[in-house]
Design a protein that fits this description.
With about 400 residues, this protein is mainly β. Helices cover about 0% and strands about 50% of the residues. The chain folds into 4 domains: about 90 residues, Immunoglobulin-like (Sandwich); about 70 residues, Carboxypeptidase-like, regulatory domain (Immunoglobulin-like, Sandwich), CATH 2.60.40; about 55 residues, no CATH class; about 110 residues, Sandwich (Immunoglobulin-like).
Protein backbone atom coordinates (compact mmCIF):
# COMPACT_ATOMS: atom_id res chain seq x y z
CA UNK A 1 0.00 0.00 0.00
CA UNK A 2 1.14 3.53 -0.62
CA UNK A 3 1.86 5.60 2.46
CA UNK A 4 2.55 9.28 2.73
CA UNK A 5 4.12 11.35 5.46
CA UNK A 6 3.10 14.82 6.51
CA UNK A 7 5.78 17.50 6.86
CA UNK A 8 5.96 18.30 10.56
CA UNK A 9 8.29 21.19 11.53
CA UNK A 10 11.13 20.00 13.75
CA UNK A 11 14.00 21.74 15.43
CA UNK A 12 17.32 20.66 13.97
CA UNK A 13 20.18 20.44 16.42
CA UNK A 14 23.86 20.76 15.66
CA UNK A 15 25.34 18.20 18.03
CA UNK A 16 29.02 18.24 18.79
CA UNK A 17 30.83 15.15 19.97
CA UNK A 18 31.94 15.47 23.56
CA UNK A 19 35.51 14.63 24.25
CA UNK A 20 37.08 14.35 27.63
CA UNK A 21 40.80 14.33 28.01
CA UNK A 22 43.35 15.30 30.57
CA UNK A 23 47.07 15.40 31.07
CA UNK A 24 48.77 13.05 33.42
CA UNK A 25 51.42 15.14 35.13
CA UNK A 26 53.31 12.03 36.24
CA UNK A 27 56.22 11.00 34.09
CA UNK A 28 55.50 7.91 31.96
CA UNK A 29 56.98 4.71 33.18
CA UNK A 30 56.81 2.91 29.83
CA UNK A 31 60.35 2.12 28.78
CA UNK A 32 59.34 2.39 25.10
CA UNK A 33 59.00 6.15 25.40
CA UNK A 34 62.14 7.89 24.26
CA UNK A 35 63.35 10.85 26.32
CA UNK A 36 61.68 14.09 25.30
CA UNK A 37 58.78 12.39 23.51
CA UNK A 38 55.18 11.94 24.65
CA UNK A 39 52.42 9.33 24.57
CA UNK A 40 48.68 9.42 23.84
CA UNK A 41 46.48 6.82 25.52
CA UNK A 42 43.09 6.48 23.71
CA UNK A 43 39.98 4.85 25.15
CA UNK A 44 36.30 4.89 24.21
CA UNK A 45 32.82 3.72 25.14
CA UNK A 46 32.00 1.37 23.51
CA UNK A 47 35.56 0.13 22.96
CA UNK A 48 36.94 -1.14 19.65
CA UNK A 49 37.08 2.19 17.80
CA UNK A 50 39.78 2.43 15.14
CA UNK A 51 42.41 5.07 15.96
CA UNK A 52 43.59 7.50 13.26
CA UNK A 53 46.48 9.90 13.68
CA UNK A 54 46.83 12.77 11.22
CA UNK A 55 44.08 11.11 9.08
CA UNK A 56 46.13 7.88 8.81
CA UNK A 57 45.06 4.64 10.47
CA UNK A 58 47.41 3.52 13.22
CA UNK A 59 46.13 -0.06 12.99
CA UNK A 60 45.19 0.23 16.65
CA UNK A 61 41.79 0.01 18.34
CA UNK A 62 40.65 1.42 21.66
CA UNK A 63 41.86 1.04 24.31
CA UNK A 64 45.46 1.45 23.12
CA UNK A 65 48.42 3.87 23.14
CA UNK A 66 50.33 5.83 20.50
CA UNK A 67 53.91 6.05 21.70
CA UNK A 68 57.04 8.11 21.11
CA UNK A 69 55.35 11.17 19.67
CA UNK A 70 57.39 14.28 19.11
CA UNK A 71 55.84 17.14 21.14
CA UNK A 72 53.43 19.01 18.84
CA UNK A 73 49.71 19.13 17.95
CA UNK A 74 48.13 15.97 16.54
CA UNK A 75 44.73 15.29 14.99
CA UNK A 76 43.25 12.16 16.60
CA UNK A 77 40.17 10.62 15.02
CA UNK A 78 38.14 7.60 16.16
CA UNK A 79 35.92 5.55 13.85
CA UNK A 80 33.36 3.06 15.15
CA UNK A 81 30.60 1.36 13.21
CA UNK A 82 27.11 2.89 13.61
CA UNK A 83 28.58 6.02 15.23
CA UNK A 84 29.58 9.39 13.90
CA UNK A 85 33.37 9.81 13.66
CA UNK A 86 34.88 11.71 16.56
CA UNK A 87 38.00 13.85 16.29
CA UNK A 88 39.99 16.34 18.34
CA UNK A 89 43.34 18.02 18.46
CA UNK A 90 45.76 16.78 21.13
CA UNK A 91 48.86 18.72 22.22
CA UNK A 92 51.63 16.26 23.07
CA UNK A 93 54.20 17.33 25.64
CA UNK A 94 57.56 15.71 26.25
CA UNK A 95 57.63 13.25 29.11
CA UNK A 96 53.83 13.28 29.59
CA UNK A 97 51.00 10.83 28.87
CA UNK A 98 47.89 12.41 27.38
CA UNK A 99 44.71 10.37 27.98
CA UNK A 100 41.89 10.75 25.48
CA UNK A 101 38.46 9.29 26.29
CA UNK A 102 35.51 9.43 23.90
CA UNK A 103 32.00 8.43 25.01
CA UNK A 104 30.18 7.78 21.76
CA UNK A 105 26.88 7.21 23.59
CA UNK A 106 26.75 10.85 24.67
CA UNK A 107 26.47 11.97 21.06
CA UNK A 108 23.89 9.39 19.95
CA UNK A 109 20.31 8.49 20.72
CA UNK A 110 18.25 5.31 20.89
CA UNK A 111 14.90 4.32 19.40
CA UNK A 112 12.28 2.01 20.89
CA UNK A 113 9.63 0.77 18.46
CA UNK A 114 6.42 -0.98 19.47
CA UNK A 115 3.20 -1.74 17.63
CA UNK A 116 -0.21 -3.28 17.94
CA UNK A 117 -0.27 -5.97 16.67
CA UNK A 118 3.27 -6.94 17.61
CA UNK A 119 5.67 -8.76 15.31
CA UNK A 120 5.92 -6.09 12.59
CA UNK A 121 9.21 -5.88 10.69
CA UNK A 122 11.14 -2.67 11.40
CA UNK A 123 12.70 -0.77 8.50
CA UNK A 124 14.92 2.28 9.11
CA UNK A 125 15.48 4.54 6.11
CA UNK A 126 14.08 1.67 3.96
CA UNK A 127 16.71 -0.74 5.30
CA UNK A 128 15.54 -3.90 7.05
CA UNK A 129 16.90 -3.83 10.62
CA UNK A 130 16.16 -7.57 10.96
CA UNK A 131 14.19 -6.65 14.08
CA UNK A 132 10.48 -7.00 14.85
CA UNK A 133 8.31 -5.05 17.25
CA UNK A 134 8.78 -4.50 20.12
CA UNK A 135 12.54 -3.86 19.92
CA UNK A 136 15.18 -1.14 20.28
CA UNK A 137 17.76 0.34 17.94
CA UNK A 138 20.82 1.83 19.63
CA UNK A 139 23.49 4.44 18.88
CA UNK A 140 21.70 6.47 16.22
CA UNK A 141 23.08 9.75 14.99
CA UNK A 142 20.82 12.61 16.16
CA UNK A 143 18.48 13.54 13.27
CA UNK A 144 15.11 12.65 11.78
CA UNK A 145 14.61 9.06 10.59
CA UNK A 146 11.94 7.42 8.46
CA UNK A 147 10.59 4.28 10.15
CA UNK A 148 8.42 1.78 8.30
CA UNK A 149 6.64 -1.19 9.86
CA UNK A 150 5.43 -4.11 7.75
CA UNK A 151 2.78 -6.24 9.46
CA UNK A 152 2.17 -9.95 9.05
CA UNK A 153 -0.76 -9.33 6.68
CA UNK A 154 1.51 -7.34 4.34
CA UNK A 155 0.19 -3.89 5.24
CA UNK A 156 2.70 -1.20 6.14
CA UNK A 157 2.72 2.15 7.93
CA UNK A 158 5.38 4.87 7.81
CA UNK A 159 6.28 7.54 10.36
CA UNK A 160 9.12 10.01 10.90
CA UNK A 161 10.80 10.15 14.31
CA UNK A 162 13.38 12.58 15.70
CA UNK A 163 16.39 11.13 17.53
CA UNK A 164 18.04 13.35 20.13
CA UNK A 165 21.47 12.88 21.70
CA UNK A 166 21.47 11.09 25.03
CA UNK A 167 17.77 10.20 24.82
CA UNK A 168 15.58 7.27 23.86
CA UNK A 169 12.73 8.13 21.50
CA UNK A 170 9.60 5.95 21.70
CA UNK A 171 7.59 5.17 18.60
CA UNK A 172 4.37 3.29 19.37
CA UNK A 173 2.04 2.59 16.44
CA UNK A 174 -1.42 1.13 16.95
CA UNK A 175 -2.28 -0.36 13.58
CA UNK A 176 -5.49 -2.04 14.73
CA UNK A 177 -8.77 -0.24 14.24
CA UNK A 178 -11.62 0.01 16.74
CA UNK A 179 -15.27 0.46 15.74
CA UNK A 180 -17.84 1.75 18.23
CA UNK A 181 -21.40 0.91 17.15
CA UNK A 182 -24.61 2.33 18.62
CA UNK A 183 -28.23 2.45 17.51
CA UNK A 184 -31.55 4.05 18.36
CA UNK A 185 -33.26 2.11 19.74
CA UNK A 186 -30.39 0.09 21.26
CA UNK A 187 -30.19 -3.67 21.61
CA UNK A 188 -29.58 -4.54 17.95
CA UNK A 189 -27.55 -7.69 17.26
CA UNK A 190 -24.23 -6.86 15.57
CA UNK A 191 -22.87 -8.97 12.71
CA UNK A 192 -19.53 -8.45 10.99
CA UNK A 193 -19.23 -9.79 7.46
CA UNK A 194 -22.41 -11.83 8.09
CA UNK A 195 -20.92 -13.47 11.19
CA UNK A 196 -22.48 -12.74 14.56
CA UNK A 197 -20.17 -11.00 17.02
CA UNK A 198 -22.20 -12.02 20.07
CA UNK A 199 -22.69 -8.32 20.87
CA UNK A 200 -25.64 -5.95 20.82
CA UNK A 201 -25.62 -2.18 20.52
CA UNK A 202 -24.01 -0.24 22.03
CA UNK A 203 -20.94 -2.35 21.27
CA UNK A 204 -17.22 -1.98 20.58
CA UNK A 205 -15.39 -4.11 18.02
CA UNK A 206 -11.64 -3.90 18.52
CA UNK A 207 -8.45 -5.45 17.11
CA UNK A 208 -9.71 -5.02 13.53
CA UNK A 209 -7.17 -5.03 10.75
CA UNK A 210 -7.59 -2.05 8.42
CA UNK A 211 -9.86 -2.87 5.51
CA UNK A 212 -13.47 -2.91 4.36
CA UNK A 213 -16.12 -4.66 6.45
CA UNK A 214 -19.88 -5.16 6.18
CA UNK A 215 -21.64 -4.31 9.44
CA UNK A 216 -25.21 -5.62 9.84
CA UNK A 217 -27.70 -4.86 12.61
CA UNK A 218 -30.73 -7.03 13.45
CA UNK A 219 -33.46 -5.68 15.74
CA UNK A 220 -36.85 -7.30 16.34
CA UNK A 221 -39.64 -5.30 14.77
CA UNK A 222 -37.34 -3.51 12.32
CA UNK A 223 -35.87 -4.26 8.94
CA UNK A 224 -32.25 -5.47 8.94
CA UNK A 225 -29.70 -2.79 8.13
CA UNK A 226 -26.28 -3.34 6.50
CA UNK A 227 -23.61 -0.74 5.84
CA UNK A 228 -20.07 -0.96 4.48
CA UNK A 229 -17.41 0.52 6.75
CA UNK A 230 -13.75 1.23 5.91
CA UNK A 231 -11.64 0.51 9.00
CA UNK A 232 -8.43 2.48 9.55
CA UNK A 233 -6.00 2.47 12.47
CA UNK A 234 -7.52 4.29 15.43
CA UNK A 235 -11.07 4.71 16.68
CA UNK A 236 -14.15 5.04 14.47
CA UNK A 237 -17.83 5.37 15.29
CA UNK A 238 -20.99 4.15 13.60
CA UNK A 239 -24.49 5.25 14.69
CA UNK A 240 -27.67 3.83 13.19
CA UNK A 241 -30.96 5.66 13.77
CA UNK A 242 -33.78 3.26 12.93
CA UNK A 243 -36.80 4.85 11.19
CA UNK A 244 -40.16 4.62 13.02
CA UNK A 245 -42.52 1.77 12.08
CA UNK A 246 -45.85 2.92 10.57
CA UNK A 247 -49.05 0.82 10.16
CA UNK A 248 -51.50 1.11 7.25
CA UNK A 249 -55.17 -0.06 7.89
CA UNK A 250 -57.27 -1.28 4.93
CA UNK A 251 -61.08 -1.69 5.40
CA UNK A 252 -63.13 -3.78 2.96
CA UNK A 253 -66.75 -2.31 2.78
CA UNK A 254 -69.84 -4.49 3.66
CA UNK A 255 -72.31 -5.21 0.83
CA UNK A 256 -75.98 -6.08 1.66
CA UNK A 257 -78.54 -7.00 -1.06
CA UNK A 258 -82.32 -7.28 -0.25
CA UNK A 259 -84.85 -8.81 -2.68
CA UNK A 260 -88.23 -6.82 -2.53
CA UNK A 261 -91.53 -8.49 -1.42
CA UNK A 262 -93.95 -9.52 -4.22
CA UNK A 263 -97.81 -9.77 -3.49
CA UNK A 264 -100.32 -11.25 -6.04
CA UNK A 265 -104.22 -11.03 -5.52
CA UNK A 266 -106.55 -13.52 -7.39
CA UNK A 267 -110.35 -12.70 -7.56
CA UNK A 268 -112.49 -14.52 -5.00
CA UNK A 269 -109.50 -16.41 -3.84
CA UNK A 270 -106.88 -14.49 -2.09
CA UNK A 271 -103.52 -15.98 -2.28
CA UNK A 272 -100.73 -14.40 -0.48
CA UNK A 273 -97.32 -15.27 -1.60
CA UNK A 274 -95.02 -15.29 1.36
CA UNK A 275 -92.48 -12.57 1.36
CA UNK A 276 -89.14 -13.81 0.25
CA UNK A 277 -86.16 -11.94 1.59
CA UNK A 278 -82.74 -12.86 0.41
CA UNK A 279 -79.82 -11.43 2.32
CA UNK A 280 -76.34 -11.73 0.95
CA UNK A 281 -74.11 -12.61 3.87
CA UNK A 282 -72.18 -9.62 5.15
CA UNK A 283 -68.55 -9.51 4.10
CA UNK A 284 -66.36 -9.38 7.19
CA UNK A 285 -64.58 -6.09 7.82
CA UNK A 286 -60.85 -6.90 7.87
CA UNK A 287 -58.07 -4.70 9.23
CA UNK A 288 -54.73 -5.67 7.64
CA UNK A 289 -51.66 -4.37 9.51
CA UNK A 290 -48.81 -3.61 7.09
CA UNK A 291 -45.25 -2.32 7.62
CA UNK A 292 -44.53 0.64 5.38
CA UNK A 293 -41.44 0.69 3.22
CA UNK A 294 -39.55 3.85 4.13
CA UNK A 295 -36.53 5.13 2.24
CA UNK A 296 -34.09 6.81 4.58
CA UNK A 297 -30.42 7.83 4.68
CA UNK A 298 -28.04 6.27 7.19
CA UNK A 299 -24.85 7.55 5.58
CA UNK A 300 -23.41 10.97 4.92
CA UNK A 301 -22.46 12.50 1.59
CA UNK A 302 -19.97 15.37 1.40
CA UNK A 303 -19.70 17.33 -1.82
CA UNK A 304 -18.53 20.72 -2.98
CA UNK A 305 -16.14 22.64 -5.19
CA UNK A 306 -12.43 23.34 -4.72
CA UNK A 307 -10.94 26.45 -6.34
CA UNK A 308 -7.61 28.23 -6.70
CA UNK A 309 -7.08 31.81 -5.49
CA UNK A 310 -8.31 34.42 -8.02
CA UNK A 311 -5.78 34.94 -10.78
CA UNK A 312 -3.73 31.87 -9.82
CA UNK A 313 -2.83 29.76 -12.90
CA UNK A 314 -3.08 26.01 -12.70
CA UNK A 315 -5.67 23.25 -12.46
CA UNK A 316 -7.41 21.76 -9.43
CA UNK A 317 -8.06 18.51 -11.29
CA UNK A 318 -6.90 15.43 -9.32
CA UNK A 319 -6.67 17.39 -6.07
CA UNK A 320 -7.22 14.82 -3.33
CA UNK A 321 -10.01 15.57 -0.84
CA UNK A 322 -9.72 13.38 2.27
CA UNK A 323 -11.33 12.64 5.65
CA UNK A 324 -9.47 11.52 8.80
CA UNK A 325 -10.77 10.15 12.09
CA UNK A 326 -8.14 11.90 14.23
CA UNK A 327 -5.35 14.46 14.11
CA UNK A 328 -2.87 11.63 14.68
CA UNK A 329 -4.14 9.86 11.57
CA UNK A 330 -3.84 13.17 9.68
CA UNK A 331 -0.19 13.41 10.78
CA UNK A 332 0.38 9.84 9.52
CA UNK A 333 -1.70 10.55 6.39
CA UNK A 334 -3.99 7.64 7.22
CA UNK A 335 -7.15 8.62 5.39
CA UNK A 336 -10.61 7.33 6.30
CA UNK A 337 -11.93 8.13 2.83
CA UNK A 338 -10.79 10.22 -0.11
CA UNK A 339 -11.73 11.26 -3.63
CA UNK A 340 -10.41 13.65 -6.29
CA UNK A 341 -11.65 16.88 -7.81
CA UNK A 342 -12.61 16.88 -11.46
CA UNK A 343 -11.49 19.52 -13.95
CA UNK A 344 -14.03 21.99 -12.59
CA UNK A 345 -13.11 21.33 -8.97
CA UNK A 346 -16.23 19.28 -8.16
CA UNK A 347 -15.89 16.35 -5.75
CA UNK A 348 -18.19 13.95 -3.85
CA UNK A 349 -17.52 11.67 -0.89
CA UNK A 350 -20.42 9.24 -0.41
CA UNK A 351 -21.27 6.32 1.86
CA UNK A 352 -19.61 7.97 4.87
CA UNK A 353 -20.86 6.88 8.32
CA UNK A 354 -22.21 9.98 10.11
CA UNK A 355 -19.75 11.28 12.68
CA UNK A 356 -16.90 13.68 13.41
CA UNK A 357 -14.01 13.91 10.94
CA UNK A 358 -11.03 16.06 10.03
CA UNK A 359 -10.78 17.19 6.42
CA UNK A 360 -8.12 18.45 4.02
CA UNK A 361 -7.29 18.75 0.33
CA UNK A 362 -3.92 18.32 -1.38
CA UNK A 363 -2.49 18.26 -4.87
CA UNK A 364 1.07 16.91 -4.92
CA UNK A 365 2.33 19.03 -7.81
CA UNK A 366 5.99 17.99 -7.43
CA UNK A 367 5.10 14.29 -6.93
CA UNK A 368 7.43 13.93 -3.94
CA UNK A 369 4.68 12.52 -1.67
CA UNK A 370 5.37 15.20 0.95
CA UNK A 371 2.32 17.17 2.06
CA UNK A 372 2.91 20.93 1.93
CA UNK A 373 6.10 21.09 -0.12
CA UNK A 374 6.79 24.07 -2.37
CA UNK A 375 4.29 24.42 -5.22
CA UNK A 376 1.67 22.09 -3.70
CA UNK A 377 -2.00 23.09 -3.47
CA UNK A 378 -3.31 22.50 0.06
CA UNK A 379 -6.37 23.24 2.18
CA UNK A 380 -7.32 22.24 5.70
CA UNK A 381 -10.44 22.73 7.74
CA UNK A 382 -9.21 24.74 10.67
CA UNK A 383 -7.19 27.85 11.47
CA UNK A 384 -3.68 29.25 11.36
CA UNK A 385 -1.25 30.32 8.68
CA UNK A 386 0.84 27.67 6.93
CA UNK A 387 2.98 26.02 8.24
CA UNK A 388 1.56 26.80 11.71
CA UNK A 389 -1.89 25.31 11.27
CA UNK A 390 -4.55 23.82 13.55
CA UNK A 391 -7.13 21.34 12.32
CA UNK A 392 -10.77 21.60 13.43
CA UNK A 393 -13.26 18.71 13.37
CA UNK A 394 -16.47 18.71 11.35
CA UNK A 395 -19.70 16.92 12.35
CA UNK A 396 -21.24 15.25 9.30
CA UNK A 397 -24.85 14.06 9.86
CA UNK A 398 -26.74 11.61 7.66
CA UNK A 399 -27.64 13.20 4.35
CA UNK A 400 -25.72 15.65 2.17
CA UNK A 401 -23.35 18.33 3.44
CA UNK A 402 -21.67 20.89 1.16
CA UNK A 403 -18.09 21.96 1.84
CA UNK A 404 -16.48 24.38 -0.62
CA UNK A 405 -12.84 25.45 -0.21
CA UNK A 406 -10.14 27.65 -1.73
CA UNK A 407 -6.71 26.03 -2.05
CA UNK A 408 -3.52 27.61 -0.73
CA UNK A 409 -0.44 27.57 -3.00
CA UNK A 410 2.62 26.69 -0.94
CA UNK A 411 5.41 29.19 -1.74
Amino acid sequence: MRTLTKVIPVLLFLLLTIFLYHCDEESPTNSDIQPGNGLIFVDSNPPGAEIFLQNTSTGKFTPDSIKNLVPESYDVRLKLNEFTDSSLVVNVKGGLTITVYVDFTLSTGNLFVSSSPQGAQIFLENINTEKTTPDSIFYLEPRSYNVKLIFTNGDDVTQNVLIEAGKTSDLILNYFGTLSIDSNPPGAEVLLDSITTGKVTPAILDSLFPGQYEVSLKLTGYSDISVTVQIHPGNQELFINYPPITTTTTTVPTTTTTVPTTTTTVPTTTTTVPTTTTTVPTTTTTTVPTTSTTTYSITATISGVGTLPPGEPGSVQNTRVALYTSVQNWNFDITFAFTACDGSGNYTLSGIPPGVYYMDAWKDNDNNQVWGSSGDYIWWNGSGVFPNITLAPIQFPAGTTTVNFELFVVP
